[in-house]
Amino acid sequence: MTAPQVPARGGPAGEVEAALYEVRRKIYPRAVHGWFARWRWALVWFTQAIFYGLPWLSWGSRPAVLFDLEARRFYLFGIVLYPQDFIYLTGLLVISALALFLFTAVAGRLWCGYACPQTVYTEIFMWIEHRIEGDRTARMKLDRSPMSARKLALKGTKHLLWILVALWTGITFVGYFTPIRELLGALLTLSTGPWQTFWVLFYGFATWGNAGFLREQVCKYMCPYARFQGVMFDKDTLVITYDRERGEPRGPRSRKADPRGAGLGDCVDCNICVHVCPTGIDIRDGLQYECIGCAACIDGCNQVMDRMGYPHGLIRYTTENALERKLEPAAIVRRVLRPRVLVYSAVLLAATLALFGHLALRAPLKLDVIRDRALGREVEDGRIENGYQLQIINSAERTRRFRVTVSGIDTIFVAGGSEFEVGPAGVRMVPLPVRVEAGHGEPGSNRIAFHVHAEDDPSVSAEAHSTFFVPR
Predict the structure, then answer these.
(1) pTM to 2 decimals?
(2) What are the pLDDT digits (tens) for 258-273?
(3) DSSP-derived 3-state class of residue 10
(4) Which long-range contacts (CB under 8 A, 24 or more apart) does 190-196 make?
Protein backbone atom coordinates (compact mmCIF):
# COMPACT_ATOMS: atom_id res chain seq x y z
CA MET A 1 0.00 0.00 0.00
CA THR A 2 1.27 3.44 -0.80
CA ALA A 3 1.44 6.04 1.91
CA PRO A 4 -1.28 8.72 1.79
CA GLN A 5 -0.18 11.98 0.20
CA VAL A 6 -1.29 15.52 1.03
CA PRO A 7 -0.35 18.87 -0.59
CA ALA A 8 2.84 20.34 0.82
CA ARG A 9 2.33 23.31 3.09
CA GLY A 10 4.37 26.31 2.16
CA GLY A 11 6.13 24.52 -0.71
CA PRO A 12 6.09 25.02 -4.47
CA ALA A 13 2.87 24.15 -6.28
CA GLY A 14 2.55 20.50 -7.22
CA GLU A 15 4.67 19.19 -4.35
CA VAL A 16 3.12 16.69 -1.94
CA GLU A 17 4.00 15.38 1.48
CA ALA A 18 4.00 11.62 2.06
CA ALA A 19 2.85 10.47 5.49
CA LEU A 20 5.16 7.99 7.15
CA TYR A 21 2.26 5.94 8.50
CA GLU A 22 -1.07 5.08 6.96
CA VAL A 23 -4.15 5.44 9.10
CA ARG A 24 -5.50 1.96 9.71
CA ARG A 25 -8.46 0.97 7.59
CA LYS A 26 -10.67 -1.57 9.31
CA ILE A 27 -10.67 -4.99 7.66
CA TYR A 28 -13.92 -6.92 7.38
CA PRO A 29 -12.95 -10.53 6.65
CA ARG A 30 -15.64 -12.57 4.98
CA ALA A 31 -16.57 -15.98 6.41
CA VAL A 32 -15.11 -18.83 4.40
CA HIS A 33 -15.54 -22.60 4.41
CA GLY A 34 -13.28 -25.31 3.10
CA TRP A 35 -10.57 -27.82 3.86
CA PHE A 36 -8.11 -25.34 5.37
CA ALA A 37 -10.83 -23.57 7.37
CA ARG A 38 -11.75 -26.91 8.93
CA TRP A 39 -8.11 -27.53 9.82
CA ARG A 40 -7.86 -24.07 11.33
CA TRP A 41 -10.91 -24.64 13.52
CA ALA A 42 -9.71 -28.11 14.49
CA LEU A 43 -6.54 -26.50 15.85
CA VAL A 44 -8.55 -23.79 17.58
CA TRP A 45 -10.48 -26.50 19.44
CA PHE A 46 -7.35 -28.55 20.12
CA THR A 47 -5.20 -25.70 21.47
CA GLN A 48 -7.99 -24.22 23.58
CA ALA A 49 -9.01 -27.59 25.01
CA ILE A 50 -5.42 -27.90 26.25
CA PHE A 51 -5.14 -24.30 27.47
CA TYR A 52 -8.48 -24.13 29.26
CA GLY A 53 -8.47 -27.75 30.42
CA LEU A 54 -5.02 -28.32 31.92
CA PRO A 55 -5.48 -26.17 35.06
CA TRP A 56 -8.52 -28.28 36.02
CA LEU A 57 -6.72 -31.62 35.89
CA SER A 58 -5.66 -33.09 39.24
CA TRP A 59 -2.67 -35.25 40.08
CA GLY A 60 -3.25 -36.78 43.47
CA SER A 61 -4.06 -33.95 45.85
CA ARG A 62 -2.65 -31.16 43.69
CA PRO A 63 -3.18 -29.67 40.22
CA ALA A 64 -1.53 -31.68 37.46
CA VAL A 65 0.09 -28.54 36.02
CA LEU A 66 1.05 -25.74 38.41
CA PHE A 67 3.88 -23.22 38.35
CA ASP A 68 4.11 -22.29 42.02
CA LEU A 69 6.42 -19.27 41.89
CA GLU A 70 6.08 -18.52 45.60
CA ALA A 71 7.23 -22.00 46.63
CA ARG A 72 9.64 -22.20 43.66
CA ARG A 73 8.20 -25.51 42.52
CA PHE A 74 6.85 -26.35 39.09
CA TYR A 75 4.54 -29.35 38.82
CA LEU A 76 4.07 -31.14 35.49
CA PHE A 77 1.92 -34.19 36.12
CA GLY A 78 4.24 -36.59 37.99
CA ILE A 79 7.33 -34.39 37.69
CA VAL A 80 8.40 -31.72 40.18
CA LEU A 81 10.92 -29.18 38.91
CA TYR A 82 12.91 -26.55 40.79
CA PRO A 83 14.80 -23.40 39.77
CA GLN A 84 17.89 -25.61 39.51
CA ASP A 85 16.14 -27.38 36.62
CA PHE A 86 16.19 -24.24 34.46
CA ILE A 87 18.13 -26.25 31.87
CA TYR A 88 14.88 -27.99 30.90
CA LEU A 89 13.24 -24.68 30.05
CA THR A 90 16.28 -23.81 27.95
CA GLY A 91 15.98 -27.14 26.15
CA LEU A 92 12.27 -26.58 25.54
CA LEU A 93 12.97 -23.16 24.03
CA VAL A 94 15.65 -24.65 21.77
CA ILE A 95 13.21 -27.35 20.61
CA SER A 96 10.53 -24.72 19.94
CA ALA A 97 12.95 -22.63 17.87
CA LEU A 98 14.09 -25.67 15.87
CA ALA A 99 10.47 -26.68 15.23
CA LEU A 100 9.70 -23.14 14.04
CA PHE A 101 12.67 -23.25 11.66
CA LEU A 102 11.61 -26.66 10.36
CA PHE A 103 7.96 -25.77 9.76
CA THR A 104 8.89 -22.47 8.13
CA ALA A 105 11.42 -24.12 5.81
CA VAL A 106 8.82 -26.70 4.77
CA ALA A 107 5.63 -24.65 4.44
CA GLY A 108 6.11 -21.06 5.50
CA ARG A 109 4.15 -19.53 8.36
CA LEU A 110 2.21 -22.60 9.49
CA TRP A 111 2.51 -21.51 13.11
CA CYS A 112 1.08 -18.06 12.36
CA GLY A 113 -1.80 -19.33 10.27
CA TYR A 114 -3.02 -22.15 12.47
CA ALA A 115 -1.70 -22.22 16.04
CA CYS A 116 -0.44 -18.77 17.08
CA PRO A 117 -2.53 -17.44 20.02
CA GLN A 118 -3.11 -14.19 18.14
CA THR A 119 -4.60 -16.14 15.21
CA VAL A 120 -6.60 -18.46 17.46
CA TYR A 121 -8.23 -15.74 19.55
CA THR A 122 -8.81 -13.51 16.54
CA GLU A 123 -10.62 -16.45 14.93
CA ILE A 124 -12.78 -16.89 18.05
CA PHE A 125 -13.56 -13.19 18.30
CA MET A 126 -14.39 -12.95 14.60
CA TRP A 127 -16.75 -15.92 14.92
CA ILE A 128 -18.59 -14.11 17.73
CA GLU A 129 -18.67 -10.93 15.64
CA HIS A 130 -20.03 -12.84 12.65
CA ARG A 131 -22.76 -14.49 14.75
CA ILE A 132 -23.87 -11.19 16.31
CA GLU A 133 -23.43 -8.64 13.52
CA GLY A 134 -23.58 -10.80 10.40
CA ASP A 135 -21.13 -11.43 7.57
CA ARG A 136 -18.86 -8.90 5.87
CA THR A 137 -21.48 -6.80 4.08
CA ALA A 138 -23.76 -6.62 7.11
CA ARG A 139 -20.90 -5.53 9.38
CA MET A 140 -19.78 -2.83 6.97
CA LYS A 141 -23.36 -1.55 6.67
CA LEU A 142 -23.79 -1.58 10.46
CA ASP A 143 -20.58 0.41 11.03
CA ARG A 144 -21.62 3.03 8.46
CA SER A 145 -25.08 3.44 9.94
CA PRO A 146 -25.83 6.09 12.60
CA MET A 147 -26.08 5.05 16.21
CA SER A 148 -29.42 3.46 17.03
CA ALA A 149 -30.89 1.15 19.65
CA ARG A 150 -30.29 -1.84 17.37
CA LYS A 151 -26.69 -0.91 16.69
CA LEU A 152 -26.02 -0.25 20.39
CA ALA A 153 -27.56 -3.61 21.31
CA LEU A 154 -25.52 -5.53 18.71
CA LYS A 155 -22.25 -3.79 19.58
CA GLY A 156 -22.91 -4.12 23.31
CA THR A 157 -23.69 -7.84 23.04
CA LYS A 158 -20.58 -8.46 20.97
CA HIS A 159 -18.30 -6.66 23.41
CA LEU A 160 -19.92 -8.32 26.40
CA LEU A 161 -19.18 -11.75 24.91
CA TRP A 162 -15.66 -10.65 23.97
CA ILE A 163 -15.03 -9.44 27.53
CA LEU A 164 -16.36 -12.68 29.03
CA VAL A 165 -14.05 -14.76 26.80
CA ALA A 166 -11.12 -12.45 27.57
CA LEU A 167 -11.71 -12.54 31.34
CA TRP A 168 -12.03 -16.33 31.35
CA THR A 169 -8.78 -16.47 29.39
CA GLY A 170 -7.11 -14.24 32.00
CA ILE A 171 -8.47 -16.39 34.84
CA THR A 172 -7.21 -19.55 33.11
CA PHE A 173 -3.77 -18.00 32.60
CA VAL A 174 -3.46 -17.14 36.30
CA GLY A 175 -4.80 -20.64 37.05
CA TYR A 176 -1.45 -22.02 35.90
CA PHE A 177 0.24 -20.16 38.79
CA THR A 178 -2.47 -20.37 41.46
CA PRO A 179 -4.68 -23.47 41.83
CA ILE A 180 -7.67 -22.51 39.71
CA ARG A 181 -10.29 -23.78 42.17
CA GLU A 182 -8.77 -21.60 44.90
CA LEU A 183 -8.55 -18.71 42.44
CA LEU A 184 -12.23 -18.96 41.52
CA GLY A 185 -13.19 -19.07 45.20
CA ALA A 186 -11.12 -15.96 45.84
CA LEU A 187 -12.65 -14.19 42.83
CA LEU A 188 -16.18 -14.97 44.02
CA THR A 189 -15.40 -13.54 47.46
CA LEU A 190 -13.36 -10.63 46.04
CA SER A 191 -10.33 -11.74 48.08
CA THR A 192 -7.71 -12.21 45.37
CA GLY A 193 -4.24 -10.86 45.95
CA PRO A 194 -2.99 -7.78 44.09
CA TRP A 195 -0.84 -9.73 41.64
CA GLN A 196 -3.59 -12.22 40.86
CA THR A 197 -6.03 -9.39 40.19
CA PHE A 198 -3.51 -7.54 38.06
CA TRP A 199 -2.68 -10.51 35.84
CA VAL A 200 -6.29 -11.59 35.37
CA LEU A 201 -7.21 -8.09 34.23
CA PHE A 202 -4.01 -7.49 32.27
CA TYR A 203 -4.14 -10.77 30.35
CA GLY A 204 -7.87 -10.38 29.79
CA PHE A 205 -7.44 -6.81 28.54
CA ALA A 206 -4.58 -7.88 26.24
CA THR A 207 -6.75 -10.67 24.77
CA TRP A 208 -9.69 -8.30 24.26
CA GLY A 209 -7.53 -5.61 22.69
CA ASN A 210 -5.37 -7.83 20.48
CA ALA A 211 -8.10 -10.14 19.19
CA GLY A 212 -10.91 -7.60 19.10
CA PHE A 213 -9.21 -4.44 17.85
CA LEU A 214 -5.55 -4.74 16.85
CA ARG A 215 -5.89 -8.07 15.03
CA GLU A 216 -3.75 -7.91 11.87
CA GLN A 217 -1.77 -4.97 13.31
CA VAL A 218 -0.15 -7.38 15.79
CA CYS A 219 0.96 -9.63 12.94
CA LYS A 220 2.09 -6.80 10.68
CA TYR A 221 3.83 -4.46 13.10
CA MET A 222 4.29 -6.02 16.54
CA CYS A 223 5.39 -9.59 15.77
CA PRO A 224 9.06 -9.88 14.72
CA TYR A 225 8.47 -13.22 13.00
CA ALA A 226 6.85 -11.50 10.01
CA ARG A 227 10.04 -9.53 9.47
CA PHE A 228 12.63 -12.29 9.52
CA GLN A 229 10.58 -15.15 8.08
CA GLY A 230 11.86 -14.38 4.59
CA VAL A 231 15.37 -15.50 5.44
CA MET A 232 14.02 -18.99 6.22
CA PHE A 233 12.27 -19.35 2.85
CA ASP A 234 13.87 -20.67 -0.30
CA LYS A 235 12.61 -21.65 -3.74
CA ASP A 236 11.43 -25.05 -2.46
CA THR A 237 9.40 -23.74 0.48
CA LEU A 238 5.68 -24.37 0.16
CA VAL A 239 3.93 -21.00 0.26
CA ILE A 240 0.49 -19.73 -0.72
CA THR A 241 0.81 -18.67 -4.33
CA TYR A 242 -1.43 -17.29 -7.07
CA ASP A 243 -0.84 -19.06 -10.38
CA ARG A 244 -0.45 -16.00 -12.57
CA GLU A 245 0.07 -17.98 -15.76
CA ARG A 246 -3.24 -19.75 -15.31
CA GLY A 247 -5.21 -16.82 -13.90
CA GLU A 248 -4.21 -13.91 -16.15
CA PRO A 249 -5.61 -11.94 -17.77
CA ARG A 250 -8.31 -11.79 -15.14
CA GLY A 251 -11.82 -10.52 -15.71
CA PRO A 252 -15.51 -11.20 -15.05
CA ARG A 253 -17.51 -13.52 -17.28
CA SER A 254 -20.64 -15.68 -17.19
CA ARG A 255 -20.45 -19.30 -16.12
CA LYS A 256 -21.21 -20.47 -19.65
CA ALA A 257 -18.53 -18.34 -21.29
CA ASP A 258 -15.38 -19.92 -22.70
CA PRO A 259 -12.56 -18.03 -20.97
CA ARG A 260 -9.96 -19.06 -23.54
CA GLY A 261 -12.16 -17.91 -26.38
CA ALA A 262 -12.59 -14.57 -24.63
CA GLY A 263 -8.85 -14.29 -24.05
CA LEU A 264 -9.23 -14.58 -20.28
CA GLY A 265 -7.54 -16.64 -17.61
CA ASP A 266 -9.33 -18.51 -14.82
CA CYS A 267 -9.39 -15.57 -12.38
CA VAL A 268 -12.83 -13.95 -12.54
CA ASP A 269 -11.59 -10.92 -10.55
CA CYS A 270 -14.20 -11.48 -7.83
CA ASN A 271 -11.78 -10.30 -5.10
CA ILE A 272 -12.99 -13.00 -2.72
CA CYS A 273 -9.33 -13.78 -1.94
CA VAL A 274 -9.03 -10.21 -0.64
CA HIS A 275 -12.37 -10.24 1.19
CA VAL A 276 -11.54 -13.39 3.21
CA CYS A 277 -7.95 -12.37 4.04
CA PRO A 278 -7.58 -11.46 7.76
CA THR A 279 -4.73 -9.08 6.95
CA GLY A 280 -6.41 -7.50 3.93
CA ILE A 281 -3.78 -8.26 1.28
CA ASP A 282 -4.24 -9.32 -2.32
CA ILE A 283 -2.32 -12.57 -2.81
CA ARG A 284 -2.44 -11.96 -6.57
CA ASP A 285 0.20 -9.26 -6.04
CA GLY A 286 2.62 -11.97 -4.91
CA LEU A 287 3.75 -13.22 -1.51
CA GLN A 288 3.89 -10.41 1.07
CA TYR A 289 5.20 -10.26 4.61
CA GLU A 290 1.67 -9.56 5.88
CA CYS A 291 0.53 -13.04 4.72
CA ILE A 292 0.17 -15.29 7.77
CA GLY A 293 -0.32 -18.47 5.72
CA CYS A 294 -3.86 -19.15 6.96
CA ALA A 295 -4.97 -20.34 3.46
CA ALA A 296 -8.36 -18.59 3.70
CA CYS A 297 -7.75 -17.29 0.18
CA ILE A 298 -7.30 -20.86 -1.07
CA ASP A 299 -10.66 -21.93 0.37
CA GLY A 300 -12.36 -18.81 -0.97
CA CYS A 301 -10.92 -19.19 -4.46
CA ASN A 302 -11.78 -22.90 -4.58
CA GLN A 303 -15.41 -22.05 -3.80
CA VAL A 304 -15.48 -19.71 -6.79
CA MET A 305 -13.78 -22.30 -9.00
CA ASP A 306 -16.50 -24.80 -8.02
CA ARG A 307 -19.23 -22.36 -9.02
CA MET A 308 -17.52 -21.64 -12.33
CA GLY A 309 -16.76 -25.29 -13.04
CA TYR A 310 -12.99 -24.70 -13.09
CA PRO A 311 -10.41 -26.95 -11.37
CA HIS A 312 -9.09 -26.05 -7.93
CA GLY A 313 -5.60 -24.68 -7.42
CA LEU A 314 -5.62 -21.20 -8.94
CA ILE A 315 -4.42 -20.17 -5.48
CA ARG A 316 -2.63 -23.03 -3.72
CA TYR A 317 0.31 -24.16 -1.64
CA THR A 318 3.22 -24.61 -4.00
CA THR A 319 6.85 -23.61 -4.43
CA GLU A 320 8.61 -21.10 -6.59
CA ASN A 321 10.51 -23.86 -8.36
CA ALA A 322 7.30 -25.80 -8.96
CA LEU A 323 5.73 -22.83 -10.75
CA GLU A 324 8.80 -22.06 -12.81
CA ARG A 325 9.51 -25.66 -13.81
CA LYS A 326 5.92 -26.96 -13.77
CA LEU A 327 6.81 -29.77 -11.39
CA GLU A 328 4.47 -32.63 -10.61
CA PRO A 329 3.27 -33.10 -6.98
CA ALA A 330 5.66 -36.03 -6.42
CA ALA A 331 8.60 -33.91 -7.54
CA ILE A 332 7.50 -31.08 -5.25
CA VAL A 333 7.45 -33.43 -2.25
CA ARG A 334 10.91 -34.76 -3.11
CA ARG A 335 12.31 -31.25 -3.30
CA VAL A 336 10.62 -30.26 -0.03
CA LEU A 337 12.55 -33.10 1.67
CA ARG A 338 15.83 -31.40 0.87
CA PRO A 339 19.05 -31.49 2.98
CA ARG A 340 18.15 -28.35 4.90
CA VAL A 341 14.86 -29.85 6.05
CA LEU A 342 16.45 -33.22 6.87
CA VAL A 343 19.14 -31.52 8.98
CA TYR A 344 16.54 -29.50 10.87
CA SER A 345 14.53 -32.69 11.42
CA ALA A 346 17.53 -34.66 12.67
CA VAL A 347 18.65 -31.92 15.07
CA LEU A 348 15.09 -31.43 16.32
CA LEU A 349 14.66 -35.17 16.91
CA ALA A 350 18.01 -35.42 18.71
CA ALA A 351 17.25 -32.41 20.95
CA THR A 352 13.77 -33.74 21.76
CA LEU A 353 15.04 -37.22 22.63
CA ALA A 354 17.87 -35.77 24.72
CA LEU A 355 15.55 -33.47 26.68
CA PHE A 356 12.80 -35.96 27.42
CA GLY A 357 15.25 -38.82 27.93
CA HIS A 358 17.16 -36.81 30.52
CA LEU A 359 13.88 -35.76 32.12
CA ALA A 360 12.72 -39.39 32.35
CA LEU A 361 16.02 -40.50 33.89
CA ARG A 362 16.23 -37.52 36.23
CA ALA A 363 17.04 -38.54 39.81
CA PRO A 364 14.38 -37.59 42.39
CA LEU A 365 17.09 -36.24 44.69
CA LYS A 366 19.39 -33.23 44.41
CA LEU A 367 22.22 -32.16 46.66
CA ASP A 368 24.05 -28.84 46.92
CA VAL A 369 26.91 -28.16 49.35
CA ILE A 370 28.00 -24.75 50.61
CA ARG A 371 31.16 -24.60 52.70
CA ASP A 372 31.19 -22.19 55.66
CA ARG A 373 33.46 -19.20 55.20
CA ALA A 374 35.34 -19.96 58.38
CA LEU A 375 38.50 -22.01 57.89
CA GLY A 376 39.02 -25.31 59.65
CA ARG A 377 39.33 -25.16 63.43
CA GLU A 378 40.76 -27.49 66.02
CA VAL A 379 38.32 -29.10 68.45
CA GLU A 380 38.63 -31.65 71.25
CA ASP A 381 41.29 -34.37 70.94
CA GLY A 382 43.08 -32.34 68.23
CA ARG A 383 40.47 -33.10 65.60
CA ILE A 384 39.93 -30.63 62.77
CA GLU A 385 36.39 -29.50 62.00
CA ASN A 386 34.90 -27.73 58.98
CA GLY A 387 31.28 -26.56 58.73
CA TYR A 388 28.96 -27.03 55.74
CA GLN A 389 25.40 -26.29 54.69
CA LEU A 390 23.75 -29.07 52.72
CA GLN A 391 20.65 -28.37 50.63
CA ILE A 392 18.73 -31.60 50.14
CA ILE A 393 15.94 -31.47 47.53
CA ASN A 394 13.44 -34.31 47.60
CA SER A 395 11.59 -34.34 44.25
CA ALA A 396 9.42 -37.29 45.23
CA GLU A 397 5.93 -36.47 46.43
CA ARG A 398 6.31 -38.44 49.66
CA THR A 399 8.38 -37.91 52.78
CA ARG A 400 11.78 -39.57 52.71
CA ARG A 401 14.56 -40.10 55.22
CA PHE A 402 18.09 -39.60 53.95
CA ARG A 403 21.48 -40.60 55.32
CA VAL A 404 24.58 -38.43 54.72
CA THR A 405 28.12 -39.80 54.56
CA VAL A 406 31.40 -38.17 53.58
CA SER A 407 34.61 -39.50 52.00
CA GLY A 408 37.91 -38.28 50.63
CA ILE A 409 40.18 -38.28 53.73
CA ASP A 410 40.98 -41.17 56.02
CA THR A 411 39.03 -40.96 59.30
CA ILE A 412 36.70 -38.21 58.00
CA PHE A 413 33.20 -38.42 59.46
CA VAL A 414 30.01 -36.45 60.06
CA ALA A 415 29.87 -35.06 63.58
CA GLY A 416 26.42 -35.23 65.11
CA GLY A 417 23.34 -36.51 63.30
CA SER A 418 23.68 -37.86 59.79
CA GLU A 419 20.03 -38.76 59.08
CA PHE A 420 17.51 -36.18 57.95
CA GLU A 421 13.87 -36.29 56.94
CA VAL A 422 12.64 -34.20 53.99
CA GLY A 423 8.96 -33.72 53.23
CA PRO A 424 7.24 -34.42 49.89
CA ALA A 425 8.56 -32.19 47.10
CA GLY A 426 10.48 -30.45 49.85
CA VAL A 427 13.78 -28.66 50.33
CA ARG A 428 15.78 -28.76 53.55
CA MET A 429 18.91 -26.87 54.54
CA VAL A 430 21.05 -28.95 56.89
CA PRO A 431 24.00 -27.58 58.91
CA LEU A 432 26.63 -30.31 58.92
CA PRO A 433 29.92 -30.29 60.88
CA VAL A 434 32.56 -32.62 59.44
CA ARG A 435 35.71 -33.72 61.30
CA VAL A 436 38.94 -35.62 60.73
CA GLU A 437 41.24 -37.15 63.29
CA ALA A 438 44.44 -35.29 64.17
CA GLY A 439 47.30 -35.89 61.74
CA HIS A 440 45.09 -36.84 58.78
CA GLY A 441 44.69 -34.85 55.63
CA GLU A 442 47.21 -32.67 53.83
CA PRO A 443 47.71 -29.13 55.11
CA GLY A 444 45.54 -26.78 53.05
CA SER A 445 42.56 -27.80 50.92
CA ASN A 446 41.57 -31.42 50.53
CA ARG A 447 38.92 -32.58 48.08
CA ILE A 448 36.04 -34.48 49.70
CA ALA A 449 32.67 -35.85 48.58
CA PHE A 450 29.28 -35.88 50.28
CA HIS A 451 26.97 -38.83 49.60
CA VAL A 452 23.26 -38.84 50.31
CA HIS A 453 20.95 -41.81 49.80
CA ALA A 454 17.36 -42.61 50.73
CA GLU A 455 17.06 -45.22 53.46
CA ASP A 456 14.00 -46.82 51.83
CA ASP A 457 15.65 -47.01 48.40
CA PRO A 458 19.48 -46.89 48.17
CA SER A 459 19.24 -46.36 44.40
CA VAL A 460 17.91 -42.85 45.13
CA SER A 461 21.21 -41.13 45.80
CA ALA A 462 23.20 -38.00 45.03
CA GLU A 463 26.77 -36.85 45.37
CA ALA A 464 28.36 -33.42 45.66
CA HIS A 465 32.00 -32.34 46.05
CA SER A 466 33.59 -29.72 48.25
CA THR A 467 36.88 -29.07 50.03
CA PHE A 468 38.07 -29.68 53.59
CA PHE A 469 40.63 -27.23 54.99
CA VAL A 470 43.37 -28.48 57.31
CA PRO A 471 45.33 -25.67 59.05
CA ARG A 472 49.05 -25.60 58.31
Answers:
(1) 0.84
(2) 998 889 999 999 999 9
(3) coil
(4) none
